[in-house]
Automatic annotation (TrEMBL), chain A:
Family annotation (SMART domains): AAA
Alphabetically ordered keywords of this record: Amino-acid transport, ATP-binding, Nucleotide-binding, Transport
InterPro entries recorded: AAA+_ATPase, ABC_transporter-like_ATP-bd, ABC_transporter-like_CS, BCAA_Transport_ATP-bd_LivF, P-loop_NTPase
Protein name as catalogued: ABC transporter ATP-binding protein
Record flagged with keyword Membrane: no
GO BP of this protein: L-amino acid transport
Domain of life, source organism: Bacteria
Domain ABC transporter residue range list: 4-229
PROSITE patterns the record matches: ABC_TRANSPORTER_1, ABC_TRANSPORTER_2
Single GO MF descriptor: ATP hydrolysis activity
Family affiliation: Belongs to the ABC transporter superfamily.
Pfam families, per database record: ABC_tran
From TrEMBL, chain B:
InterPro entries cross-referenced by the UniProt entry: ABC_transp_permease, BCAA_transport_permease
Organism: Phytoactinopolyspora halophila
Membrane-related topology note: Multi-pass membrane protein
Pfam families: BPD_transp_2 (PF02653)
One GO BP annotation of this record: amino acid transport
Transmembrane segments: 6-24, 31-52, 58-81, 93-112, 132-156, 177-206, 212-231, 236-253, 259-276
Keywords recorded for this protein, A-Z: Amino-acid transport, Cell membrane, Membrane, Transmembrane, Transmembrane helix, Transport
Entry similarity comment: Belongs to the binding-protein-dependent transport system permease family. LivHM subfamily.
Protein name stated in the entry: Branched-chain amino acid ABC transporter permease
Principal localisation: membrane
GO cellular component, one term: plasma membrane
GO molecular function: transmembrane transporter activity
Length: 230, 286
């Protein structure tokens, strides 16, 4: 089955579980929004999927291949790309060098850089000299160059002005239009639910809503109840 | 004094090469490798044993020594990459102190505690400048220091592998998430610096103090050299190593300073730390 599948995933950090028994499927071309209050465990769940932290229970698979015990590198080779919270550029590397790390050919590099004409003039600038929005463009271009099958996006808007974020948001839809399955964690809940087909609300490490994203967006009472623990 | 200063170039070249290795290790794999020179010492001792006891030609024994130095370093790198991949620089560096002591102890057990009968690979004068003799060893060590620093800089800035290494050094987790194999690259850096360090120690050991502790403690002046470049800049590590060697050589020629030359690396380190601290205070005040 073509999907990123999580079954009863539990993630522990320090004293105890921060995510308990989460199951979900991310299908190619679909956007799944993962929302919830701060500290609910959303980031930990993404990190478990990409291998940054180990899972303490349950299983994860990509297109039927179990990845729970695979290294981060092996998972990336299966097409799993994780855009971390903050702006995960390599500071001293130039824009081109940052994007080239994921590109397998000059054509892929050029295609990725062409996504953001703003970056063209800054091609040879170290990433640390770019604005926050430009750095996030570099991260998105690098993800695009990797030709992902599944994309995990963690709080892309963090620290960005809303006007900058709304410039970047269409890129998420563009990834999906190209068949990439996306698991999207986002603090701007309504924007995330507007993009997604399916949504999960996580509160205190447990899923308190799992269903249609549009229905959740249209029902503030349901959303608030889910945020408060269902 | 000029003769002494230029004679110090041989030692300065060794400090410079080892300083460059320490800088690369610090930048790329987040370790201050206190066992850098000890790995070279151990590899060199194996070469001496092969020449003295097995009749192996010196050039072949040197190749084996370089391989052993690389293998020892790679083994430490494997341990650090496997069990301390998420640890901070202090914890990773502490492991190399243990390895330093292990290698010195092992060399005493296997080879005895007397200086080894090194046979020189290079010897004699290379040329003279105004009546001052420059040895072949000095030419070799200074040249290899410059070549290693320049080649490392070119590798890191102009090749795909170098860019991946820099990415790994800046954000290891992010680099792994985009498919850069941190462990493999890290072990390769350990092995390469181990090989280079062993080569210079094998070349210079016959003309320097050649007991296990003296060779292993070459890491101290090398650290002083690396500190000049704040364990970041390769060119300043070379300058620091050469300057330290020249100063030590000059001091050795002056009766009243000849004993003090052994303290020069210490003074160099203290002076640099005080200077860096002064800069921090200046910045904070501003």
């Amino acid at each position: 089955m073509n999907a990123l599948e999580l079954r009863d995933v539990t993630v522990s950090r320090g004293a105890g579980p921060v995510i308990r028994d989460v199951s979900l499927d991310v299908r190619p071309g679909a956007i799944t929004a993962l929302v919830g209050p701060n500290g609910a465990g959303k980031t930990s769940l993404l990190e478990a999927v990409s291998g940054v932290v180990p899972v303490s229970g349950g299983s994860i698979s990509v297109d039927g291949t179990p990845i729970t015990r695979l290294s981060r590198v092996a998972r990336s080779r299966l097409g799993l790309v994780h855009i971390e919270q903050g702006r995960a550029v390599f500071p001293s590397l130039t824009v081109v060098e940052n994007v080239r790390l994921s590109a397998r050919s000059s054509a892929e590099l050029d295609d990725a850089l062409a996504l953001f004409p703003e970056l063209d003039e800054r091609r040879d600038s170290p990433a640390e000299l770019l604005s926050g929005g430009e750095q996030q463009m570099v991260v998105l271009a690098r993800a695009f160059a990797a030709r992902p099958a599944f994309l995990l996006i963690d709080e892309m808007s963090l620290g960005l002005a809303p006007v900058v974020f709304t410039r970047l948001l269409p890129m998420v839809q563009r990834f999906a239009d190209q068949g990439v399955g996306i698991l999207l964690v986002e603090q701007f809940t309504h924007l995330a639910l507007g993009l997604a087909r399916e949504a999960l609300v996580v509160a205190s490490g447990r899923v308190t809503y799992h269903g249609d994203a549009q229905a959740l967006r249209d029902s503030p009472d349901t959303l608030h109840a889910a945020y408060l623990g269902g | 004094m000029l003769q002494g200063a230029l004679a110090g170039l041989a030692a300065g070249g060794v400090y410079a090469v080892l300083g460059v290795c320490l800088t690369l290790m610090s930048r790329l794999v987040r370790v201050v490798n206190f066992a850098q020179a000890a790995a070279g010492m151990f590899g060199t001792y194996i070469a001496v044993w092969l020449v003295s006891n097995q009749g192996v030609p010196i050039w072949l024994a040197t190749v084996v020594a370089v391989g052993c130095g690389a293998a020892i370093s790679a083994a430490i790198g494997w341990v650090v990459s496997t069990w301390l991949s998420e640890a901070d620089t202090s914890a990773r560096s502490a492991v190399t102190v243990a390895v330093l002591l292990l290698l010195i102890s092992l060399s005493f057990i296997l080879f005895g505690n007397k200086p080894q009968p090194f046979r020189p690979i290079l010897g004699g004068p290379a040329f003279q400048v105004s009546g001052v003799v420059i040895s072949q060893v000095a030419v070799f060590t200074v040249t290899i220091a410059a070549v290693v620093a320049a080649a490392s800089h070119a590798l890191l800035t102009r090749t795909a592998v170098g860019i991946k290494l820099r990415a790994l050094s800046e954000r290891p987790t992010t680099a792994e998430l985009i498919g850069i194999p941190a462990k493999l690259f890290g072990i390769a850096v350990w092995a390469a610096t181990g090989a280079v360090g062993t080569l210079v120690i094998a070349i210079v050991a016959p003309s320097q103090s050649n007991d296990a502790i003296a060779l292993s403690m070459l890491v101290v002046p090398a650290a002083a050299a690396a500190l000049l470049g704040a364990f970041r800049r390769l060119d300043l590590a070379v300058v620091g190593g050469l300057a330290l060697g020249v100063l030590q050589g000059a001091a050795a020629q002056m009766t009243e300073l000849s004993v003090a030359r052994h303290f020069l690396p210490f003074l160099f380190i203290v002076g640099l730390l005080v200077w860096f601290q002064r800069k921090e205070v200046w910045d904070a005040a501003r």
